[in-house]
Design a protein that fits this description.
single chain; 123 residues; mainly alpha; 6 helices; 67% helix
Length: 123
Amino acid sequence: MTALWGSTGVVALAGFFILNRWTPQDPGRISWCLFRDISGISGPGCGLTRAFAHLAKGQLAAAFVLHPMAPLLALELPILWLWWGLRLFGGARALNLERWALAHAALFILLWIARLASGTLPP
């Protein structure tokens, strides 16, 4: 299990460096969102990858415009990874991740509805 934890950290770090070097293109060229391809509107997670690319470059405002939850998630993910490591090595108590995940899912949906109503979804 510790190998999985370490591998996850290495992959996340590699992802950070890739996102730092990647310049997001016009989303009309390539769509990675099945929801948008089928429905014609951006989904609750649309813009997150591009927002993380901006965060990796330190561009907080650009990231926030693409997806307001990106900075929160970018802060939480390494914290959760560190907690997982502490848990593996006996230094942390268990967390209720189901509540955390449900709260985030609800926030994603509420944010998506608000952005859909206000016309501020990313292309």
